[in-house]
DNA sequence: CGGTATCCGAAATGATACTG
DNA sequence: CAGTATCATTTCGGATACCG
């Protein structure tokens, strides 16, 4: 997990929300979560195409952080050419599920912008 | 709302999650949401004390963005000395509720770090 | 194919001083 | 009290080139 200066970190935080925010706190992470939930066992290049605009560097670093956070599983097959597949862990699936109400809130708000 | 380069923005995003992520996409925003949910009608200085480490500038700009996003309501009483109270709007309360599963996920994970 | 290394610019945050 | 203004710093993400 990245070592950042968490708001409520030092003296113990009041709710678990900031813990979760760190895990999803990258520009593409929730999209990676979403993509891997819909398309398990995705290869690096495929994932890249599923997320238009992401660069190799950022995708790779996000995936490594998410792997370190235990939400993404990386499976490397020792073949030529190399093949690597990414999926969500159980915890990653639960995280994605926990994101659902937030997605609903966002969709509702998009549907009713004013009043 | 802040104008950022949203991942799925240009061609329409797949889920509402990134819309929500923008609204809570500030270092202290979820904590502000949480604090205002537990302590409605909080004044600027009180809020600042509720969020140890936040600076005036960041708190003020976050509050203004959240107000613009319609999740925070600012009420200014024309008195001397000045008094301003912040609360969540209905939408802000819903957002905070939508954050609950995420907070649960974070708390569970803190409780069970490894398996 | 699946990455890593380096450099760079933008954006977010922080420190401090000042104001109505 | 409740901010704003300015400047410094940090962090993140993007572009590009290269490697096993």
UniProtKB/TrEMBL annotation, chains A, B:
The keyword DNA-binding applies. It holds the Pfam family HxlR. Keywords: DNA-binding, Transcription, Transcription regulation. SUPFAM superfamilies: Winged helix' DNA-binding domain. PROSITE patterns: HTH_HXLR. Residues 15-114 form the HTH hxlR-type domain. The keyword RNA-binding does not apply. InterPro entries: ArsR-like_HTH (IPR011991), HTH_HxlR (IPR002577), WH-like_DNA-bd_sf (IPR036388), WH_DNA-bd_sf (IPR036390). It comes from the Bacteria. This is Helix-turn-helix transcriptional regulator. It comes from Streptomyces nigra.
């Amino acid at each position: 997990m990245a070592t950042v200066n968490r708001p409520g970190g030092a003296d113990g935080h009041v709710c678990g929300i900031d813990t979760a925010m760190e895990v999803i706190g990258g520009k593409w992470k929730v999209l990676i979560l979403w993509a891997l939930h819909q398309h398990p066992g995705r290869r690096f290049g495929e994932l890249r195409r599923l997320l238009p605009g992401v660069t190799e560097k950022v995708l790779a670093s996000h995936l490594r952080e998410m792997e370190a956070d235990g939400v993404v599983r990386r499976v490397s097959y020792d073949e030529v050419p190399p093949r690597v597949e990414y999926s969500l862990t159980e915890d990653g699936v639960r995280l994605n599920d926990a994101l659902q109400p937030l997605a609903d809130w966002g969709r509702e708000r998009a549907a009713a912008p004013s009043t």
